[in-house]
Amino acid sequence: MTGISTLGIGSGLDLSTILDSLTTAEKASLTPISTQQTAYTAKLSAYATLKSSLSTFQTANTALNSADLFTATTATSSSSAFSAKTSGTTVAGKYTISVSQLAQAQTLTTAEQSSNTAVLGDSSASSRTMTITLKDGSSKDISLTSDQTSLTGMRDAINSADAGVTASIIKTGDSTYRLSLTSNETGSDNAVTSISVTGDSTLQGIVGYGTDDSTVTESVTAQNAKLKVNNVDIENSSNTISDALEGITLNLNDTTTGNQTLTIAKDTSKAESAIKTWVDAYNTLQDQFSTLTKYTAVDAGTDSQDSSNGALLGDSTLRTIQTQLKSMLTNAQSSSTYKTLAQIGITTDPSTGSLELDSDKLESALSSDADGVKEMIVGDGKTTGITTTIANSLTSWLSSTGIVQAATDGVSKTLNNLTDQYNTMSTRIDNLIARYKAQFTQLDVTLSSLNSTSTYLTQQFESSSSSSSSSSSS
Fold first, then answer.
1. 46's torsion region: left (phi>0), alpha (psi -120 to 50) or beta?
2. What would the DSSP string read from start to end of 396-429?
3. What number is the average pLDDT over the span 332-343?
4. Whose CA is closest to 193, among 129, 135, 108?
5. Higher confidence at residue 418 or residue 184?
6. Residue 165 in contact with residue 140, Cβ under 8 Å?
């Protein structure tokens, strides 16, 4: 009887259905925990979204939180012979510029050789050293093996030595080659004054430079750039000149024909663009807030909220950030006439909390008083200014000890506790069902045995009764 495989076969009772019902009833106690797990998992994901959204807005806020934006200028040249870049400290104005000479790097070229791989030095020399000396007095010693005295070998050795020049091989004919050395920097002070080889007179005769009998020629002469700015002579070793005019970097491309003009004008477009990007980023953040706190009304008498509600509906952390952020849109401490964003054309939609931008009003404010707008928006860059205050708060909110991380950690801890609760209760239920099943199995065996005994006794009784009846008849 102990081999019964399905509950109820032996007893005739529907024990399997009873056990299934008990299992369903017990496991129903896990549902509230599962529901909480789902809610807190969604909340954990929502905090990650909140953190990402704040980081995205932080990028736009950082870009706007720059005083240079409001003092930006643009440079316009009347000639393609030169261009210019300005910084945030550049003063608007006009300059007369004429370029008479561009800076160029020196190039030295050896005499022609019939092979670029053949050894050119004295193979009997035990060692040799090539020394390259620049006009500024710096020099570099390069040790060469016999195999490194070919044009290719010397090229590679020179380029590996950081000697202030770059070597290359020029093929001038079917079987003629020259080694070419070009200074890494333009200007006469960066030119090579001598190349000497000690320990190998043969190689000295091929690559030596700076002596009367040298066969190396100067194919390009080093020279400085020469120009006049407002009729003042300027000479520079580079065609990129950053120290002649304050806040202006000149890039020389060619010589000019007569005087040309460089115009430096105020440029409000950079500030306008940064402000527009900031407004868009702020509105995107507000949209994300709305999604995370979405509320859908339910019919009266319904116990649960709509499943489409935002995971952070009623969340104190998000509400704190949203409220504080809104309060930072003014700068009452500003020393300029501008105290609120509305004064420069940025207003708040009371129904959505989003910002609306009047581009014409913004452009007008920047054109008339860019410094005043800067004072309101950036302030001192440390404690005052709308974007500065927001930047400090964002840094705090998003730090490893900030309120977003604290809320995330709290949810994670709760989820871990719920998981422990779920596992503990699930194990208890499994053990309980296992006991029920064992008890039902034993009941099935017992009832099956009793049924068999009852059948046997009944058969015996009927057999005895039949025998008694037969005896009486005879």
1. alpha
2. HHTSTTSHHHHHHHHHHHHHHHHHHHHHHHHHHH
3. 92
4. 135
5. 184
6. no
